[in-house]
Design brief:
Elements: E1 2-6, E2 9-15, H1 37-40, E3 48-52, E4 55-59, E5 64-75, E6 78-88, E7 93-97, E8 99-100, E9 106-107, E10 111-114, E11 117-120, E12 123-127, E13 132-142, E14 145-154, E15 160-168, E16 177-187, E17 191-194, E18 197-201, E19 204-210, E20 213-216, E21 228-230, E22 233-237, E23 241-252, E24 257-266, E25 271-281, E26 285-295, E27 323-333, E28 338-348, H2 352-355, H3 360-364, E29 367-377, E30 383-394, E31 399-414, E32 433-446, H4 476-481, E33 484-495, E34 498-500, E35 504-526, E36 531-553, E37 556-561, E38 567-583, E39 593-595, E40 611-613, E41 628-644, E42 653-669, E43 680-688, E44 692-701, E45 703-705, E46 711-715, H5 716-719, E47 726-738, H6 740-743, E48 774-786, E49 792-804, E50 810-819, E51 824-825, E52 829-836, E53 839-846, E54 853-860, E55 869-874
Parallel strand pairs: 2-3
Antiparallel strand pairs: 1-2, 3-5, 4-5, 5-6, 6-7, 6-10, 7-12, 8-9, 10-11, 11-13, 12-13, 13-14, 14-15, 15-16, 16-17, 16-18, 17-20, 18-19, 21-23, 22-23, 23-24, 24-25, 25-26, 26-27, 27-28, 28-29, 29-30, 30-31, 31-32, 32-33, 33-35, 34-35, 35-36, 36-38, 37-38, 38-41, 39-40, 41-42, 42-43, 43-44, ...
Keywords: Signal
Signal peptide: 1-19
Organism: Adhaeribacter rhizoryzae
Length: 879
Amino acid sequence: MRLLLVGQMVIFCTVGAFAQKAPANTITPPDSIKVTQDSIKGDITTTIKYSAKDSIVFHVNERVVNMYGEANIDYGDMSLQAAKTAINYETNILTAAGATDSVGKAIGTPVFKQGAEMYTANQMNYNFKTKKGKISGVVTRQGEGFLHAETVKRTSDEAFYGANAHYTTCDLPHPHFYINATKIKALPGKKIFTGPFNLVFADIPTPLGFLFGYFPTPQKKRSTGSSGIIFPTFGEAREQGFYLRQGGYYLALNEYIGISILGDIYSYGSWAAHVQSTYNKRYAYQGNFSIDFSATRFADGGSVRTDTNPIVGQGRFPRQEPRSFFIRWSHSPAPKQGGKLSASVQAGTSFYNRQNYSTPSNNLSATFNSSVQYQYANPNSPVTFTASMLHNQNTLTKVHNFTLPEATLSVNRQYPFRLFNKNAAGGNFLQDISLAYNLTARNQITNAIQSGTLPGVNLIGGEQRDTSLALNGRNIPTILRNAQVGMRHSFPIAMNSIRILKHLNLSPSLYYNATSYLKQLKYTYVESSNAVRIDTINRFSVASEYGAGASLSTRIYGMAIIKGKRLEAIRHQIQPSISYNYTPNLSTAYGQYVQLSDVVNSTTGMVPYQYLSRYNGFMNAPSGSGLQSALYFTIQNNVEAKVKAKTDTAETFEKVSIIDNFSFTGGYNFAADSFKVQPINAQFRTVLFKRLNIFTSANLDPYQVNAAGRRLDRLLINESSFRFARLTNANLNLDIDLNPDAVKSKKEATRTNRPSLETDVNLQDQYIDFKIPWTFRINYTASYFAQANGTSQTTQSLGFDGSLNLTDKWKVTYNSGYDFLNKALTYTSLNIHRDLHCWEMSIGWIPFGVYQSYSININARSALLRDLKLSRNRSWYNR
């Protein structure tokens, strides 16, 4: 290293191992050279560091330094790398150029960096005093795009002007497409302006262009992008005419949030408005919000299908809402301690998604759920607070259920008898007792019309035809009056398991629940109608229920030693458990029930001993009026095999599950006056060949039925010793997920004749790798239901979906199925995606059904040029 100290200027010269000598006509300064202060200082104001791998030649008289072989210059925030560079201290100019190797290949192409800017060029000249430069054959990145130009002049304000320039989002040295302009001006990190330009594809000029161009190139990446006009798509809808859709303006408010304001217009008079917003703040939250409104008018004059006029209009699709809207909101907080707000909202008018195509899943869905929740939890505290607002709607029945709001305060299990001894870890009866607390306050609102029947009771009014009240200004007061408000206190008391006889685990528990209401039901007998009228009265009351229980469980193991070629042993594990629940008779306690005989004067057509709850249909209503004393049992089975590993030559074994779960549950209610034996539920689950998932369940009823299908209080086993229960319903689900690992051959084919794609770039697009990644999943579902009239119904469906990667550029996804009951294919779709490097192509096809459609899109991948696309589609609403 040679250090030349000149006044306040320090020059570092690092010289590598010299492979060649300096030219004979140059002068290499000796180590003892002495230079006066003013001889080379010039206008340099900071340190210049330079180095070269080959040689550095310092011309003292001309005050020029020449560097050869991987030369590098650093000056402030500027750096320059090239095969050959020179510093002229007299003119304050840096120059750089590339070179060629022995076979004529370009090496050491100059690369200029200053701050966040980087340029690659054939020849560079830069004045480090005026900060101006001239660059030939330049390539530089601007935002999401790349700028190629024959000649670029850089000004002191960091703007540069280019001649014969190409702007593209393709990152190849020779791009697939570009915007060709004779003149261009760029403000790095801000924007690019061009004069007249045209679009060039695969070196073929097209007439597509304009008199000027403007392209924003923000240097700071923002999740919301940049503001700008969104061009609409055009087409024709059969029932609404020609249209312009999804056109408007995108407004980037800041780096966290952006808003799209879009609109649709149709030639028959329909229109729609959309407001969509996305937001994202790192380490805090992210989400999106949209509200859509549509006003629909059809070609036949805007007729709308109604309940009284169901066949108005000649369209193929139902019309029920001339005005409709839909709201979607998703909000996710970042994982952190303390309070968290989350939201998932999907709500709107019942027919919006069927009249206004959005996605197949939304069009096929009949129910939508929404929730907005705030939760506060402190890891150092056992208390958790949650406040929620819930909503669900059924677009077929038009029933809306609101929970506005629901608040929950929970206290985790605490051991009160350990407070006096903080180091206690249990072990005695008192220290194992735990107490928890849950408080739930809820306000439920629904527009559903409650059922007008009670078992054994004649009611005034009869059945209602409609299932719900319309959500309009006339019905809102009625809906609000029917709201249910309640507050539930729950005190579960439990103990840790107690070991009995070394193998049995006993877990006792107690519970007490109290629910406060602001309303009650009042039953009044109307003699003239021999019926009971039910009125809702405003009265504060508390409904209580309590009980006790205990469970006893153990595990039983059985082992069969096989000692086969690979099978070593089979183990059977049985987990039996019994539980007992007791609830006292609350029929006459606390005034929660009233006996029908105390209400009516006549029992014609009624059951006089029936108890009527004052909270029937209320939230968290008491579960029952009579004594509950029930014993339940569960038997779970698990079977595993111990086998030798295939790929291991040593004596190593692995567990293979044969039966994951085979269980039975049932019970017996000692306090019931009839039907004491509870139905039996059976479940079976296993996985075969590590691919095929099998799950089946069945419900068995131990009681007889008469010819009309009505249950009789007589056990089947009393009628026949060979039959103890009858099958009421059953389900079978088979699911197999295939992928290349499931069907790969044991030996891969040799690929010695395979062309080298790394060395021959021209073969990359022609070669197809037949080792294709793919997935294929099949699902079969069957259900059996026994009808009350003695008949049965069986449903079956088969579904499949998967993907196929023909190459790393081609991807195909598909899904379909078959409904055996209706003998028709279910919803079917086929999607093809092609990666075109800087472009992409997607094809979507729904071949049949109500939503039959297709779409073909070819578009630039960059969000900056997202309007540069070619689209062709026929959707279900415009085919």
